[in-house]
Design a protein that fits this description.
The chain starts with about 30 loop residues before the first helix and ends in a 9-residue tail after the last strand. The strands form eight sheets. It has a seven-stranded mixed β-barrel with strand order 1-2-10-7-4-3-11. Strands 12-14-13-15-16-21 form a six-stranded mixed beta sheet, with helices on both faces. About 55% of the residues are buried. It is about 25% helix and about 25% strand. Strand 19 (about 365-370) and strand 20 form a beta hairpin.
């Protein structure tokens, strides 16, 4: 792992922050290591042994990388988040629990500075003032770390807080055990000679401890004093980002302890906010009694109430509902939730072991949100009063930002309590096409950048279309491919196959002969897209009444034409590299006077990056521009980001605006090495929660704005020492990365994209892996996939 984190030389000559480390022969003091953005070469992997005992009698022996001073007990749970361990460990909802991280390698990006505070005086990168988890279990611990915000290793932070950490544990087996038996009480024992613990004497922290009282504030605190909207927040273990988001929206937030008699003070405030927290909600009897009083007031005294996580459960119990313990809980960043009020699906961050059984709620309440995986309740709403909840975490940190709008919904209700609760309106979906016969364009002849690399996507698309009972006509000149397999038993066999070049003239002839009502253009790579664009301009589709399924041709043009792409991204203030489009060599030279050297040229409508490259001077530019313009009508001259990280996301969207990122990948090499030539890892290994979800949020915003339907790929350049990023390109089709992402995640991107192109909602496409859940989810990997290019020189 250490080699993957090697320093990147910057073209400016300035020493990068993460290059500031001692030579291999030196020895760092513990103090200096705590101030370094990268671990020293002298750091040794953990060697001391420790044991995790579970109440079912099983035990796991691993190596201790955290505090090695005393044994700890707790409820052993797992979370599926692939990033964000600093935020998770400081979440008060994990009080009394030993966290198992399912992501396989932990510690790569270290831990941020604990002393850095935000504008509210809160620790800037954490969700509370301390680690609340009792212990941490991981598979592989990266004792070498590297990140521009890092101040120490994860292990040093755990030692600093007195929290044990255990690595070299088979977390997949442990997670499977928890899924089968439910959350188990466990003990991390650091004494190798200690006997196995007697769990009859340990007990479950949910029963034996009042954990909310342990994490709740002991005094009233006010944030955003003087702000116009007055909110009272009941602190049952409030995450700091809840405070940030409320105050940033103009709230004066008065935080009170969990057992504060707040019902009598409701008239002083515009609304009541109920926070997250740990443990069994029934233990918060004083909070529940206050809520019963608060929701029983006359209509003219009603104030909006918004509860999150434990707050959802407390309000549910106060409303007459019953809280039930889930077998192993929902903890992670990829839980799909549907909004019954709008039909929209969200990917949410969650951390809870209980939920409200909505069948036990009174008749005044409706279910608002439901989990698309297990069907459990994710929130409810009063039929006439502004009381509503979310079991998930709209405040994220860690996790996706999809439901941050819930805070805006709450504050809108606080400003006008008599108005109905409103959620963001979605654009109306276009009419679902009536499809019976589909022409699918395969890729062009066998060469690098096309053909076999798109065989997977085409085959999967045929399978999906046939499953919907459609007649499929395939054009593909490659006889040696899976999708052109004539075996009657093949589920990727089209009804009619034409071994003809994918060019406008031949495609038009097939349209005349077969008379399809629709065409799929996104499964054959750049060859199929370019052919479709030409036919669109010539009016061929309109002439024969052929409907383009999925992403429409004008959207393809917006992404392929570099100037239009730049203009479209500027409409939403998105970040792209400084660039100028041109159609001539002299135009490129003129553009270089503004951009400066080194610079990057990119070809529009090109196969596999053909005609793109780095230019260091005018001579280099003239040579490369001439080559690029020989294969493309337009090139983009852009600022070079040589040495930046290259990251990409595979994104799926349906016509109803449901959108998920299925996989993110990170290039081993910095920008400047073509993705096809670089080692690529899925998921990313050096991004923090902040960076991962910043790019994810951007990907979803861009894809929705462009109007892509089906699958696409978005590529970024991310500065290695800041949050600065640029969007390199968006491929509005199945790309070569799509096959890798599908294999890496088990999510059949092409199959799902074909279904979405028919107008089927994402949450109605069956998950081909589980056969039980649906395709509106984001896979969370408990393994790392690495793609290494292999150049067999013996063939030359």
């Amino acid at each position: 792992m250490a080699s993957m984190l090697r320093p990147i030389a910057r073209s400016s000559g300035r020493t990068a922050a993460f290059l500031n480390r001692a030579p291999a022969s030196s020895t760092k003091s513990p103090l200096s290591r705590l101030m370094s953005t990268q671990s020293g070469d002298d750091v040794k992997p953990p060697s001391a042994l420790a044991t995790l005992y579970l109440e079912d009698g099983s035990k796991f022996v691993g190596r201790s990388f955290g505090s090695h001073e005393a044994a700890v007990d707790g409820e052993v749970v797992f979370t599926t988040g692939m990033v964000g361990y600093p935020e998770a460990l400081t979440d008060p909802s994990y009080q009394g629990q030993i966290i198992t991280l399912t992501t396989p390698m932990v510690g790569n990006y270290g831990v941020p500075d604990r002393k850095k505070v935000d504008k509210f005086g809160l620790p800037a990168m954490f969700e509370s003032y301390k680690i609340h988890a009792s212990g941490l279990i991981v598979q592989d611990y990266a004792h070498h770390y590297s990140h521009w915000k890092a101040a120490s290793s994860l292990g040093d932070w755990l030692k600093e807080e007195g929290i044990p950490g255990l690595c070299d544990i088979d977390t997949r087996m442990l997670t499977k055990k928890i899924r089968e038996k439910g959350a188990l009480v466990g003990r991390i024992e650091i004494d190798e000679n200690a006997p196995a613990p007697d769990f009859t004497q340990i007990g479950n922290p949910n029963i034996n401890r009042h954990m909310v009282s342990e994490v709740s504030t002991k005094e009233i605190k006010v944030y955003g004093e003087g702000n116009p909207i007055k909110i009272m927040g009941v602190d049952c273990g409030m995450k700091y980002n809840m405070i940030r988001l409320l105050v940033d929206r103009g709230c004066e937030l008065t935080i009170v302890p969990w057992d504060h008699p707040f019902a009598a003070d409701m008239h002083k405030f515009d609304g009541l906010f109920l926070s997250n927290g740990p443990g069994d909600p029934i233990s918060c009897d004083k909070t529940i009694e206050q809520l019963r009083q608060a929701i029983s007031v006359p209509d003219d005294q009603v104030k909006p109430i918004f509860g999150i996580c434990l707050g959802n459960q407390l309000l549910g119990i106060a409303a007459g509902g019953e809280a039930k313990k889930l077998p192993f809980g929902n903890r992670g960043q990829n839980q799909p939730v549907i909004n019954h009020a709008t039909g929209e699906c969200y990917i949410t961050s969650q951390n809870h072991g209980y939920h409200i059984d909505t069948t036990t709620l009174g008749s005044d309440y409706n279910e608002l949100f439901a989990n698309l995986n297990d069907g459990s309740n994710e929130g409810f709403i009063h039929k006439s009063r502004p009381y509503f909840t979310a079991q998930f975490h709209p405040e994220y940190r860690n996790g996706p930002t999809d439901t941050e709008f819930m805070f805006d919904t709450f504050l809108a209700a606080c400003k006008d309590p008599k108005a109905p609760i409103q959620f963001p309106a979605r654009k109306p979906a276009p009419p679902v096409p009536s499809v019976k016969k589909v022409l699918m364009l395969g890729s062009g002849g066998t060469s690098i950048g096309q053909a076999g690399e798109f065989d997977y996507s085409g085959g999967q698309a045929i399978k999906a279309l046939k499953e919907e009972g459609l007649e499929v006509v395939l054009m593909n000149p490659n006889i040696a491919s899976v999708q052109t397999n004539m075996d009657a038993k093949s589920d990727t066999k089209a009804d009619h196959t034409y071994f003809l070049p994918v060019t406008p003239d031949f495609v038009e002839e097939i349209i005349k002969k077969e008379k399809p009502d629709s065409i799929v253009i996104s499964m054959g790579g750049q060859t199929a897209l370019n052919c479709a664009v030409d036919m669109y301009h010539d009016g061929i589709f309109e002439k024969y009444g052929v409907h383009v399924l999925g992403t429409q041709v004008p959207v393809v043009i917006d992404t392929e034409d570099r100037q239009l792409f730049s203009d479209r991204l500027n409409e939403i203030n998105e970040k792209i590299a400084q660039s100028i489009t041109t159609t001539s060599v002299e135009g490129a030279v003129e553009a270089s006077k503004t951009i400066g050297f080194p610079l990057m040229i990119r070809s529009a409508f090109a196969l596999g990056g053909l005609g793109s490259g780095i230019c260091v001077d005018e001579k280099d530019l003239r040579e490369n521009a001439k080559k690029a313009l020989a294969v493309s009508p337009q090139i983009l001259v852009e600022k070079s980001m040589l040495g930046w990280k290259e990251v990409e996301y595979e994104v799926v969207r349906d016509v109803y605006d449901n959108c998920v990122t299925v996989c993110n990948m990170e290039n081993f090499d910095p920008l400047g090495i073509h993705t096809g030539d670089s080692i690529v890892m899925a998921p990313s290994q050096t991004l923090s929660d902040e960076e991962y979800h910043m790019l994810r949020e951007t990907a979803i915003r861009v894809v929705k704005h462009l109007g892509i339907v089906g699958e696409c790929n978005i590529q970024y350049a991310l500065h290695p020492e800041s949050l600065e990023y640029c969007i390199i390109e968006v491929n509005p089709r199945l790309s070569r990365s799509s096959a890798l992402a599908s294999k890496a995640t088990g999510y059949p991107l092409a199959f799902v994209a074909a279904k979405l192109a028919l107008g089927i909602p994402l949450n109605e496409v069956q998950n081909a892996v589980t056969k039980k859940t649906q395709a509106c989810f984001e896979p969370s990997l408990d393994y790392i996939v690495t793609k290494i290019p292999r150049w067999d020189m013996s063939k030359f």
